[in-house]
Design a protein that fits this description.
Elements lengths: L14 H6 L1 E2 L18 E2 L5 E2 L14 H16 L3 E2 L10 E5 L5 E8 L4 E6 L11
Parallel strand pairs: 1-7
Antiparallel strand pairs: 2-3, 4-5, 5-6, 6-7
Length: 134
Amino acid sequence: MPRPSQILTRPPLSAVEIEAASYVGSKEHKAKKWWGGLPGAKLGKDGKPRRPKKQRTTICWLVDKTDRDLASQWVRDALEKKQYRYYEGDKRYPKHIWHKDKDGQFWFGFLLNSAQGSYKGWPIDESEKIENFG
């Protein structure tokens, strides 16, 4: 007999919940001033982003309000297409989402506020596979 899933099945998000979800961004993935303020990415001597106790940091180049609106639509698209994974402690919104933009770039989203459906996100390198998140 197969082992039962540890992740509870959940009813789909409503259209209202999907429309309320948004991208808010995060300074640790920004190398330029952005709508949320000053960048927080630390660049090493080699010019690559670094964060203490992290393997690496991917820079997100979405920095203006138009980019924020576009990424918020990506969040809603991912939720609508069920491109996400719930974890045991998740509330209404899933912790991890992903989206492929019109240029073929994959983006990973991480839930910041489970009540509001607010996400931060960053581009996924070609070396990473989307299966790692789903």
